[in-house]
Amino acid sequence: MKYFLFVLVILGILISCTPAKKAVVPDLSIYGHEKTKEVVQLVYDAVDLIGRKGEKAFPDFRQKNSEWFYGENYVFVWGMDGMRYVYPPDAAGEGKNMLDLKDINGKPIGKMFVETAQNGEGWVFYEWTLPDTNLIEWKSTFIKKAVAPDGTEYLVGSGKYNMPIEKVFIETAVNEAEEVLQQEGKEAAFARFNDKADKFIFLNSYIFVVTLEGGCVVNPFSPQLVGTDVINLQDTNGKYFMKEQLEILKTQESCWIDYMWSKPGNEVSSQKMSYVKKVVIGDEMLAVGAGYYLE
Known about the structure:
By secondary structure, the chain is of the alpha+beta class. It has two domains: 29-161, 2-Layer Sandwich (Beta-Lactamase); 167-293, Beta-Lactamase (2-Layer Sandwich). Helices cover 29% and strands 26% of the residues. It is built from six helices and ten strands; from the N terminus they run αααββαβββαββαβββ. The chain has helices spanning 2-17, 34-53, 58-62, 109-118, 167-193, 241-248; strands at residues 76-79, 84-86, 121-129, 136-147, 153-161, 208-211, 216-218, 254-262, 269-281, 284-293. The strands form two sheets. It has a five-stranded antiparallel beta sheet with strand order 2-1-5-4-3, with helices on both faces. It has a five-stranded antiparallel beta sheet with strand order 7-6-10-9-8, with helices on both faces. A hairpin with a 6-residue loop joins strand 3 (121-129) and strand 4. It is elongated, with a radius of gyration of 23 Å. The relative contact order is 0.10.
């Protein structure tokens, strides 16, 4: 009996001395807009709560007018197999497997959510219907993996419509485009860059590819330029923006450049910022870029 009590005392001391698991703090410095930071922080906080309470946290997320569910803001929780456990806007949608969920362009956002969570965290962009309307708008959703105390893994997400685009979104897209080129080859990669159902077309942004000599190889929204020499292409202010960025890439691995260009489906020019990176594929060197509009 004394031995048993001694063991209990020792276990109590060990437990009391074990440091509590600290919440992981997101790096919000990489974002420039408060809306983006708000979404990321909300998801991180939800992941932390699941890490402490497991599925006992789920009722908290459904509570209206709470820190988790207010206005159009909410967090949702899926299993890593696509099973939806928490969906505050409509509890009737819980208990369904969402792995095959797609947007209007056929973008497989269910699989993209799961893949993003498996990789740790990230953003998924897609077109979705605004609540209580028939309007289709861009939605940006941040996804992060959560691990409950019993080891069960979940994906947690939250998103907003018409969020401002961030430079880090563009840089990430270009870096991922480089990975696809390296891993899948040019033919498969170019097909993906042109596919509206893939992740590389989002928020009026898309991947473009030119040779360092100025030959256009990929441009989903200006296909008439593909196969032409764009080295002397000018914007509406007469700026030789293509020549300028290719000149910079002779001495740098990447660069940002601003110029006037029309949005997809719009003839009026708007100020655009593009990130361009030098990518080597075999014995060929390409300039891979993407951009966003400031207006």
